[in-house]
């Protein structure tokens, strides 16, 4: 049986946040799937979380929006560009609708795939993009597990 991108999406969307966290993937907020973002495309998954901080002098609202781009196979610059297009579309939508003008909005990207393109400069690009998390997944007899990746460097710098 071949594990498809839709299977990955189903598991993430239908599982509890606690179970996903046990498996290595931390999702915060309300999760939506197959979200059409105007002509920018359809995002696999998006999460929204609103937090309010009340101080004597003012109340602050913080909105955290995360786009999850899922790939059955390899994560590469195309996956990152696709997720960036969705973030741009969401920003444009909010601007067009005058939403969240009194809020601080933080945008995040989470890329999830079975492997990472380590033969191109994609991995170095990931070192310098804030609010980006890159995960691989594996699916076997024990179910699904996720592994988050940090920064990449050469094994031998040559100096």
Protein model, in words:
With 159 residues, the chain is an alpha/beta fold. It has a single domain (5-149), classed as Trna Endonuclease, Chain: A, domain 1. The chain is 27% helix and 40% strand. The longest helix is centred in the middle third of the chain and has 21 residues, at 77-97. The radius of gyration is 17 Å and the shape is globular. The protein starts with a helix and ends in a 10-residue tail after the last strand.
Summed up, what is this model?
The chain is of the alpha/beta class.
Please give a handful of descriptors for the protein shown.
single chain; 159 residues; alpha/beta; Trna Endonuclease, Chain: A, domain 1; six-stranded mixed beta sheet; two-stranded parallel ribbon; globular
Topology (SSEs and partners):
Elements: H1 5-14, H2 17-22, E1 30-36, E2 42-54, E3 59-70, E4 74-75, H3 77-97, E5 103-113, E6 115-116, H4 122-127, E7 132-140, E8 143-149
Parallel strand pairs: 3-5, 4-6, 5-7
Antiparallel strand pairs: 1-2, 2-3, 7-8
């Amino acid at each position: 049986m071949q594990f498809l991108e839709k299977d990955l999406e189903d598991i993430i969307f239908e599982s509890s946040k606690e179970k996903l966290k046990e498996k290595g993937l931390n999702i915060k907020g309300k999760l939506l799937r197959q979200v059409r973002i105007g002509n920018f495309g359809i995002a696999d998954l998006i999460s929204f979380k609103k937090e309010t901080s009340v101080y004597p002098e003012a109340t602050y609202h913080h909105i955290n929006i995360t786009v999850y781009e899922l790939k059955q196979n390899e994560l590469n610059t195309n996956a990152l560009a696709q997720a960036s297009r969705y973030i741009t579309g969401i920003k444009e939508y909010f601007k067009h609708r005058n939403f969240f003008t009194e809020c601080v909005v933080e945008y995040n990207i989470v890329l999830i795939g079975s492997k990472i393109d380590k033969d191109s400069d994609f991995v170095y690009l990931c070192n310098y993009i804030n609010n980006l998390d890159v995960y691989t997944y594996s699916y076997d007899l024990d179910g699904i597990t996720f592994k988050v990746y940090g920064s990449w460097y050469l094994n031998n710098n040559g100096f």
